[in-house]
Amino acid sequence: MAREALGMELYDWYAQNPEEAGFFNAAMGNLSALAAGELVRVYDFSRVQTVADVGGAHGVLLAAILRANPAAHGILFDLPHVIATAGEVIAAQGLADRCELVSGDFFDEVPAGADLHVLKQIVHNWHDEQAARLLTVCHRALTPNGTLLLVDMVIPAYNQPSPAQAMDLNMLVLLGGRERTEEEFRQLLATAGFRLERIIPTHSPFSVIEATRV
C-alpha cells in the first residue's frame, strides 16, 4: 500500500511533491474529460442551482456541468495544494465568475448550500468506514432533498467480468479502497442518510449513481 511504500498516505505525499501531483492531477483531468461528456449526456442538470464538485481536481467535470446549465453556479472543492493550481484552468474555461474555489479536507467539512454534489472516483478511494464519513459530511452540507451524484464504476451483478474488478484490485493495493456493487452502494449511502434512486449506465466504464438526501 502507499503508506508502506511512501512512508505516508498517498495524498499527503502529493502535497509535498508538487511535480508528481501535477502529473496525477493531469491524469485525473483526462479521466474527468472522459466522464464529463457522458455525464452531461445522460443526466439533466437544468434544474440545478448550485453544484459542488467534491474532490474535483481542476474542475474538468464541473466545467462541463456549468456549460450544460449556463444559469448554475459551481463550487470546486479539493485539497489546498490542488486548488492552488486550479484557478488558471477555471479561468481558461471562461468560468471564473461562476465558480468558487474552496480548499479543505472533505472528511471534516465541505462548502454548504449546494443542491447537488458530484463526486467522481472519490468514494472508491476509501474503505466503507471512511467513505461513510465522507458521505455524511456531504449530507450535512447539502440543501434539504439535495442530490448526490457518484461517478464511479459499479461491479456488475453476479460479478460478470468488467473493468471494475481490475480497478477494485488496484484500489485495494494502492489505497485500501474498493469498487462496489449496486447493493453495496445502496447500503453505504443509507448509512450516510441518502436513498439510492437509480444507477445510470454510460458509454464509458463509469456509471452515474444518483442518490437523494433524506
Quick overview of this protein structure:
By secondary structure, the chain is of the alpha/beta class. 43% of the residues lie in helices and 21% in strands. The mean pLDDT is 87.
Descriptive overview:
The chain is 43% helix and 21% strand. It has 214 residues and is α/β, with parallel strands linked by helices. The strands form 2 sheets. A 7-stranded mixed sheet has the order 3-2-1-4-5-9-8, sandwiched between helices. A two-stranded parallel sheet has the order 6-7. Helix 4 (60-68) links the parallel strand 1 and strand 2 (73-78). Helix 2 (10-16) packs across helix 3 (18-42). The chain is globular, with a radius of gyration of 16 Å. The protein starts with a helix and ends with a strand. 36% of the residues are buried.
Give me the secondary-structure topology.
Blueprint lengths: L1 H5 L3 H7 L1 H25 L7 E5 L5 H9 L4 E6 L1 H4 L3 H6 L6 E5 L12 E5 L7 H14 L5 E6 L1 E2 L7 H12 L5 E2 H10 L2 E8 L5 E7 L1
Parallel strand pairs: 1-2, 1-4, 2-3, 4-5, 6-7
Antiparallel strand pairs: 5-9, 8-9
CATH-defined fold name: Rossmann fold
- CATH homologous superfamily descriptor: Vaccinia Virus protein VP39
**What order do the SSEs take from the amino end to the carboxyl end, as H and E?**
HHHEHEHHEEHEEHEHEE
Total individual domains: 1
Order of strands, widest sheet: 3-2-1-4-5-9-8
So how many helices?
A: 9
For this structure, what is the CATH class?
A: Alpha Beta
Distance between the termini: 36 Å
How many strand segments? 9
Tell me about the biggest sheet?
7 strands, mixed
Mean pLDDT across residues = 87
